[in-house]
Amino acid sequence: MVLTVLSVIGSIAFALSGALVAIEEEYDVFGILVLGFITAFAGGMIRNLIVGLPIAMVWHQNGSFLAALSAMFFAIVAPVSFVKYGLKPILLFDAIGLSTFAVQGALYAERIQAPIETVMVAAVMTGIGGGVIRDVLAQRKPIVLHADTYAIWALLAGAIIGLRWVNPMSDWQIYTLIGIIFVLRLLSMTFKWRLPRARIRDESGTC
Question: How many other CB atoms are there within 10 angstroms of residue 107's CB atom?
Fold first, then answer.
């Protein structure tokens, strides 16, 4: 049940995120649907490859598909005032999708008794995979690749579950972990936490 709930929540969040990016880039309705669905479900496909599950399992999530479609329809018909300040809802929905899908991916890997490294990779790829592909298709620089702590929180979720610092069978502990990852992501955006960058020096030795 927890995995199903996480799938629906994450699908709604990432579908809205993808739809808002498409609207901001002035895509047509078909483009909005394509970008929304890819953002919502590409991470799950990558996760299934990592943990050895059939990719076709992604297509059996009727509830998640309906939820994602409803979310995209809402974005299309939403008042202009909702889309006008699109960056804020995009980042908010992205944070929700990151936290829910990262935890979901880690739980899938943990249930097949995968080693902690696989649990962490599954968490990261489920959490960021759809967003990276969304940004690439929208010709944007993926957030995760340019000095942002985006993927760190997905890694943290995977480590916590892989080390069994939370009980995977306890609903309230799982939802609490999602809340913590979500808050950490919001704090990192608010205070502009960044990872170190490599600096390229020119021939004079200056950066």
Answer: 22
Helix (H) or strand (E) holding 44, with range, is: helix 29-51
| Locus of tokens 């598909």 | 65
Residues 6+ apart with CB under 8 A from 41: 11, 58, 61, 64, 68, 130
104-113, pLDDT tens digit by residue? 999 999 999 9
Please answer whether residues 91 and 99 qualify as being in contact, where contact means their C-beta atoms are separated by less than 8 angstroms. no
**Cα angle, residue 104 at apex, residues 60 and 91 outer, rounded to 5°:** 100
Give 206's pLDDT tier (boundaries 50, 70, 90): low
pTM passes above 0.85: yes
CA–CA distance, 140 with 138 (Å, rounded to integer): 6
Output the six-digit token pair for 43.
Answer: 């991470």
Angle made by CA atoms 146, 33, 140, in degrees to the nearest 5 = 20
Identify the residue whose tokens are 């979500």: 182
Residue 161 near residue 110 (C-beta atoms within 8 A): yes
Q: Where are the domains of the chain?
A: 2-190
23 neighbors 80 (Cβ within 8 angstroms): no
What are the tokens at 117? 């490294």
